[in-house]
Amino acid sequence: MTSLPEREAVNAQKLRSGFSRMRHAFGYSLAGLRAGWGETAFRQEALAAAVLLPLAVWLGQNWVEAVLLAGTVVLVMVVELLNTGIETAIDRIGPDWHDLSKRAKDMGSAAVLLSLLLCGATWIAALWARFA
Questions:
Q1: 39, 65, 80, 87: which is the annotated catalytic residue?
Q2: Cα separation of 122 and 28, whole Å?
Q3: 80 is annotated as an active-site residue
Q4: What average pLDDT does this structure show over 6-34?
Q5: By CB count within 10 A, which of 1, 80, 88, 95 is most buried?
């Protein structure tokens, strides 16, 4: 079993509880969003979301459609942040080319592509249902 000093040295956040843990976790989340804003792809997706999220409320014919439209937009942003996290962790290891590093980055990129395709298909279907 790990002793308390060893656990504390690894991650002090794990020792927090209650409101203090939530407050610190929220701060880390905001820091992650700020770091994401530094990435061009995330910034583009966030700006698109600023347009698409209000449009989702207007376009959706009921609350379920509005949530699905908005949800696919938010999903793209979530996947982009995860992809950026993967790329950042791989880059921290070193600049040397390695097949496993390439695979990890390619799979993260593929996840972003799939989320974009899902988002696009959902929006096209909603536009078709509304205007066709």
A1: 80
A2: 32
A3: yes
A4: 82
A5: 80
